[in-house]
Amino acid sequence: MSNKKDSKAPNGSDKMESIISLAKRRGFIFQGSEIYGGLAGTWDYGPLGVALKNNVKALWWKRFVSDRSDMFGVDAAILMNQNVWQASGHVSGFSDPLVECKKCHHRFRADQLEDAKKCPDCGGALGDVKQFNMMFKTSVGAVQDDSSVSYLRPETAQGMFVNFKNILDSLHPKLPFGMAQIGKAFRNEIAPRDFLFRAREFEQMEIEYLVKPAEWQKAFEHFVGEVHGFIKDVGLDEKDVHELEVPDGERAHYSKRTIDFEYDWPFGKKELYGLAYRTDFDLKQHSERSKVDLSYYDEETKERFIPHVIEPSFGLDRTILAILCGAYTEDELGGEGEKRVYLKLAPAVAPYKVAVFPLLRNKPQLVEKAQEVYRAVKKAIPAAAFDDNGNIGKRYRRQDEIGTPFCVTVDFDTIEKGAGVTVRDRDTGKQERVAEKDLIERLSRGL
Length: 447
Ligand code: ATP
Fold this sequence. Notes:
- The chain has helices at residues 12-25, 47-66, 82-88, 90-93, 157-161, 164-171, 216-233, 281-290, 316-327, 364-380, 392-401, 412-417, 439-446, and strands spanning 4-6, 29-31, 43-45, 71-73, 79-80, 95-100, 107-109, 130-133, 136-139, 149-152, 177-186, 201-211, 241-245, 257-265, 268-279, 296-298, 303-305, 308-315, 328-333, 339-343, 354-358, 384-386, 406-410, 421-425, 431-434.
- Strand 24 (421-425) and strand 25 form a beta hairpin.
- Helices cover 31% and strands 29% of the residues.
- It has 2 domains: 14-79 and 154-325, BirA Bifunctional Protein, domain 2 (2-Layer Sandwich); 352-446, Anticodon-binding domain (Rossmann fold, 3-Layer(aba) Sandwich), CATH 3.40.50.
- Residues 1-8 have low confidence and may be disordered.
- It is built from 13 helices and 25 strands.
- The protein is of the alpha+beta class.
- The strands form 7 sheets. Strands 4-11-12-18-15-14-13 form a 7-stranded mixed beta sheet. It has a 5-stranded mixed beta sheet with strand order 22-21-23-24-25, with helices on both faces.
């Protein structure tokens, strides 16, 4: 039985403040360009954040690419020919409604205001709504004219559509098959907010799954299940995720069916992931504009057609934020007294799986033995840490705070009686003695 007393973690903005502060304090995520006062909508990942992010990417790649035989990885350039964005509809239509306050000149997204006429900051009157294109425009090469215009991609999807023919010609896959990509996307959001939730630079993990037109429903349903599977992989609680069938008139211009997977964030229920049936819109558009035939020839039916597309789209940074929100816990450990903050991370995503300590730092024999144990553990479980700073209680707290599932301690009984080491469980604080020879097996069982 656990000796843990659960107390409720703070909610809403308090909880967000606690998470942002933990993320900074412990080297997960920092404000972008912080020493210059930051750059709104940008975030820098520190060592623990990178480890967490890499773990999430690896789980995604495993589920959606390497564990399957019908998925092809792509890593396309971020800068693309401007025709891509003309064809996709982003130049003419990728915009949000912008309003400016006539008095304080603050700018807002019109569709996110409670009162469309009054400034939420100063109460002044708001001006007319204008469409604001969210793509970051740049120019390529030394001469700046209309032909040098390019954009930082606002989604990774187009990098896959433009490579459809390359995949067909080089790997000759048969339908259905998918292209998968993880990479940066950029959107000049009018109001970046809520930490990683709405940033101007972020990462996406996207799939363009190509099917025969009549088979889109089957593939759509399949990916509904796969999205839920991934949600479990990264340790999110299913009860915090809700499917929203996006009604007619509210879907993107290319979509015939969309499900938003919404998450219960501390700041409300909002989109985590999207799943869209994009029809043959993109390939058709690119075929027409590039004059390159992007059709598929079905050898069985002797038919030539443009495949239809199911697109599961995952925000990587929103995944990280959801993981942090779900994992952030405050409690009191019965056996260890005081209040603590810990991240209840699924072992698969935790930056460190195990930390090894000597009970006391000023006893060379203990330190030496702990280092020996650490080296052996690290060989089998590379995401292992060694810590001999401060007292043992503080070390446990530090590891709890970054979500390390296990702490292994070498004490006097280890070296004097050959009595093995202690293994402490992050969530319960309970310790058990484990023989050295069984240690890796015991840890691996819990990871
Ligand atoms: P929203 O309505 O929240 O702006 P969207 O519908 O525009 O999102 P999509 O275009 O479907 O989002 O993008 C796919 C995924 O990329 C989203 O589900 C989300 O996880 C992520 N994403 C989109 N915009 C941002 C952003 N500004 N910051 C972080 N992640 C984002």
